[in-house]
Design brief:
mainly alpha; 171 residues; globular; 8 helices
């Protein structure tokens, strides 16, 4: 009877190879994610720079993240404290959506476009507005500050419509 002897590498060698491979994978994935995020930011910033040009603001401000949003609040004639409120977690979402709604309204976009594409999908929505031929409506910029209660009501209505639409599709 012939017996085969299988030689296994020591456990510490296998662990070391596994660790090196995992580190390389994590590094490669991390670099990939960083590249995607950089591309998204640049898309947003170039779109915002075009919007700033249409609003009469210096375009370079779009490439400085926090300063760009502060300039946007100023250009839309919103109260200065809105910028600071937008920095507060959870509360900031409401003020960011209200700012996006005003920007969308100035460029004749619907509230749903503003809520979706100028807040959560801003790397797509901002270039759509910035590179369009449409100019901002000065009447919208001179309107009084939007009522946040109305915005909350609009968001709830959109959510109800989506739920009813989903129910109809599932039936």
């Amino acid at each position: 009877m012939i017996t085969a002897i299988i030689i296994h590498p020591p456990v510490h060698v296998v662990d070391k190879c596994y660790t090196v491979a995992m580190k390389e994978l994590i590094l490669n994935v991390g670099i990939g994610v960083a590249i995607v995020l950089l591309c998204m930011f640049l898309s947003y910033a170039f779109g915002l720079a075009k919007v700033f040009g249409k609003l009469g603001q210096p375009r370079w401000r779009a490439f400085i993240p926090v300063f760009g949003f502060m300039t946007l609040v100023k250009a839309l004639h919103l109260p200065r404290h809105w910028f600071f409120m937008a920095l507060i977690p959870y509360v900031g979402t409401i003020y960011s959506i209200a700012t996006a709604q005003r920007l969308g309204k100035a460029f004749d976009k619907k509230t749903s476009f503003s809520v979706i594409w100028l807040t959560y999908g801003s790397s797509v929505g901002m270039p759509l507005i910035g590179f369009s031929k449409r100019q901002p409506d000065p009447k919208v910029l001179d309107e009084p500050v939007p009522n946040l209660k109305e915005l909350e009501k609009t968001i709830k209505e959109l959510a109800k419509k989506k739920k009813s639409k989903d129910k109809q599709q599932s039936v």
